[in-house]
Predict the 3D structure of the following.
Amino acid sequence: MAALNNDFQPCIVAILALAVLQACTSTPAKPGGASRVQPGPAAARNNVSDIDLNCVMSHIQSPPETFHYTFKVESDNPWQEDAVVTPQNVTGTFMNNSLPKPQDFQGPPQQVASNMMGIGRMASIFSTIHMTAAVVSEGAEQKNGYAAVRYSVDTSRGTPTEQGLFKSILGPGGFEKGTVWAISEGCPVQIVLDEELHAKDGSVQGKSHYEEAMVKQ
C-alpha cells in the first residue's frame, strides 16, 4: 500500500491553502461569542453539500446494505478495485503498479476493508474544490439504485480568489473536471473525474482519470 501513501502528500498543501481561502470570508468575533466563518459564495449560490469520501470508507467497513463497489485510476500510477460488499462478507480483487495482476480477497468487511481504500487518493482533489464555485449542483437524480444529487465539477469557473488556490495546487492551466453523484450522507455513488497537473511553466506534469461507483444490489 506504499503507492497509496504517496498520493496523500498533496492533501496537506490543499487543506492549508483551503484554510487560508476560508479565513478570508470570516467575520469579526462578536462580544461574548467566537468568530463565525461565513459560507463561501459557491455554497450560498449552489447550496452545495459536502462530498464525503469518508462516508464511502464507512460504507465499506460497516456496510448498511449490499452493493457492488468499483474504483479505478488511470494514470502513471494506476489503481483498481472491484468487490461485492455485503454486511457479512466482501469478495473482490485489487491491483496496482506493484500488483499488476488482480489479487483476490474475501472476508468480513472490517477484516478486508484495507484492500479498498484507494478512494483516499482523491482526498486532495476534494479538499481543493470543497465549497467552491467549481462544484455546482445540477439537481436530484436516481443513480445506481440510489436517490442522489448530481454535481458538475469544473475548476475553470472558480472565483478570482479560488483561481489563485487552484493555480497554486494544480499549476498554471491545471484543472479538475467531471461529475459526481452523491447521496444525502455525502457518499459519492458515482464519480467520473479528470485531473491535470501542470508545472510552473504550464507544461503538463501529470494526468489522471478517476472512476468510482457504488451500485445497490
